[in-house]
Amino acid sequence: LLLTFQNLLPIPYFARRKKVIASMNKYFKEHESVLHVGDDELRHVEKDVVIPKMVKESAMKTCAEYVKAFTDCAKGRTISVIFKCNEQNEKMKECISAHVSEADFERETKILLEKRKKFREELKDLESQQS
């Protein structure tokens, strides 16, 4: 390896940018599934983050009265919450765990897939109107 002055100079910004864009294009051409997920397939982020969040929100709405009872009890307390609000906390946990099951995950998955399908259809309609 011959070290010259030109070898020591940093790569110009535009040359680096072209290399990065070329490598990204190559990656996405090789891995088209990253860009085009089928209507009935879930991405990892949807499986691991979005659907569990939807299930939890649904359970919290269903158990709103128990959540409100616990939050009312916990207002103005710090460490004493552990002792004073234990009964409300247990009821809230039981209700939420009863509404977080495999069936709930399947229901939320169907809802998510339907929303995605509807969004893609609307997007196709917009693209066809523009052309």
Number of strands: 0
Low-confidence stretches: 1-9, 31-35
- The average pLDDT is 77
General shape: elongated
Give the SSE order as H and E letters: HHHHHHH
Helix content: over 70%
Number of helices: 7
> How large, in whole angstroms, is the Cα Rg?
26 Å
Main pleated-sheet profile: none
The end-to-end distance, rounded to whole angstroms, is 54 Å
Global structural class: mainly alpha
**Strand content bin:** under 5%
Can you walk through the features of this model?
With 131 residues, the protein is an all-alpha fold. It is built from seven helices and no strands. The chain has helices spanning 5-8, 13-30, 44-62, 64-74, 81-84, 86-98, 102-130. Helix 3 (44-62) packs across helix 6 (86-98), helix 3 (44-62) crosses helix 7 (102-130) and helix 4 runs antiparallel to helix 6. It is elongated, with a radius of gyration of 26 Å. 4% of the residues are buried. Mean pLDDT is 77; it is low at 1-9 and 31-35.
List keywords for this structure.
7 helices; 131 residues
Topology diagram in text:
Elements: H1 5-8, H2 13-30, H3 44-62, H4 64-74, H5 81-84, H6 86-98, H7 102-130
